[in-house]
Specification:
This protein is of the alpha/beta class. The chain has helices at residues 23-34, 40-43, 51-64, 128-145, 184-192, 201-212, 266-275, 283-289, 297-319, 332-340, 368-381; strands at residues 67-70, 84-87, 93-99, 103-110, 115-122, 153-160, 163-166, 169-171, 196-200, 221-226, 230-236, 239-241, 323-328, 358-361. The strands form four sheets. It has a five-stranded mixed β-sheet with strand order 5-4-3-6-9, with helices on both faces. It has a five-stranded mixed β-sheet with strand order 12-11-10-13-14, sandwiched between helices. Strands 1-2 form a two-stranded antiparallel sheet. The radius of gyration is 22 Å and the shape is globular. One of its GO terms (molecular function) is N-acylmannosamine kinase activity.
Length: 383
């Protein structure tokens, strides 16, 4: 039986008439998300709705506790001052869980996008059951410390490395073989007692970038997720592009078996560093302690540059993004080394070049995949 988390949403979050929000409510909530502090009187100019309809819908959202009214903007003219609008974080929160090959990231976030807590669980030599037990222990502790009620707990966003098969089944790298090819949605719902939205980790990283990073001012970009493997996501007009099966942005798929070993997957860099006498036990350790002068780093960058540059040019030609974002678990200095070696294949015509996408290092310093997983339930249901 197909798994749909929407059917498991608690009754207290549902509106009269069914569903969580109506299409018009969703449009207004998306607008308020993008423009927190927008006054109620300003909303009509951004929609096709009448002012009367806008006021009625916003009042209903405020009554439900989803939207809160703030102080009017100063100097907004004569007449009754119009309150400013924000999503009310007290209404609901979620838990984002991101499973990488060496670590599980945890992020609690409220519906307004405020990060309430972050932590992690080391995955090495732990079974899936042991890891989930530790995640639940940390979740309960975060709820206690932040005085979060179970009633306001909306759901779970879950991200995993690996490509999508069907339903909530993913084919993850070898270190995550126990998590692979099983229906994760029902398993997580039974374990946490909440609906679970399951995505690929590169895709949730792209979602986080679109909501909290460069997506605030760039609406079309490709997100490169450098992890144990190498994947990512595509954001088109501010929304995640899934493709026919849900694997749009699985960039490693363009390489054959031999070239795959020369793609910019961090597993290969760690192996090279260890061979050169640098003890790097995990990717999370490397991200925290990375030194571009480590023996083997420059050689690895030189080795992957041809495959990397071909990918950059393929994304540029096929997707035509405004920017390409370097994210995932890549150390900033390593990302800059790759950017510095980028070769553009463009051939100017009449002395004019095709406009190039900007190459930007993500400014999200925490676990972007976990952040994107945390906001996925709200983005799916509300905005």
């Amino acid at each position: 039986m197909a798994y749909f988390p929407e059917t498991l949403i608690a009754t207290r979050f549902l509106r009269e008439g069914g569903g969580v929000v109506s299409p018009n409510e969703r449009d207004l909530l998306k607008l308020i998300w993008r423009h927190p502090g927008l006054s109620r009187s300003e909303v009509t100019a951004h929609t096709d709705l009448t002012q009367q309809s806008v006021y009625r819908i916003i009042d209903q959202l405020e009554e439900r506790g989803i939207v809160s009214f703030g102080s009017p903007k100063p100097g907004t003219g004569r007449g009754q001052p119009s309150p400013t609008l924000r999503l009310d974080g007290r209404y609901a929160y979620s838990c984002g869980i991101s499973v990488n090959t060496d670590i599980i990231g945890i992020c609690l976030m409220d519906i307004s996008g405020n990060v309430l807590a972050e932590s992690s669980v080391a995955l090495r030599e732990r079974t899936m059951a042991q890891s989930l037990d530790l995640v639940r222990e940390q979740l309960i502790e975060h709820q206690r410390v932040n005085n979060l009620s179970e009633e306001a707990f909306f759901g779970i966003g879950f991200a995993i490395a690996g490509f999508h098969i069907s339903g909530t089944r993913y084919n993850a790298p070898l270190p995550l073989h126990e998590w692979s090819l099983i229906e994760l949605g029902p398993l997580l719902t039974e374990f946490f007692g909440k609906p679970a939205w399951v995505r690929n980790g590169g895709k949730t990283g792209a979602i986080a970038e679109s909501m909290f990073g460069v997506g605030r001012y760039i609406k079309h970009f490709a997100y490169l997720s450098f992890n144990y493997g190498f994947g990512g996501g595509l954001i088109s007009d501010g929304e995640l592009l899934l493709g026919g099966i849900g694997n749009a942005g699985e960039f490693s798929g363009m390489y054959d078996a031999e070239e795959s070993k020369r793609r910019p997957a961090l597993q290969w860099l760690i192996e090279r560093l260890n061979r050169n006498g640098v003890d790097v036990p995990s990717i999370s350790y490397m991200r925290k302690h990375f030194d571009p002068k480590w023996p083997g780093v420059a050689e690895w960058v030189d080795e992957v540059t041809p495959a990397y540059s071909r990918l950059i040019n393929a994304i540029w030609a096929i997707f035509d993004p405004q920017a390409i974002i370097f994210g995932g678990q890549v150390p900033t200095a390593l990302a800059q080394m790759l950017i510095d070696r980028t070769e553009n294949f463009d051939r100017p015509r009449y002395g004019v070049q095709r406009p190039r996408p900007k190459l930007i290092i993500s400014e999200i310093s925490s676990d972007a995949s976990a952040m994107g997983a945390a906001i996925t339930p709200f983005k799916s249901a509300y905005y």
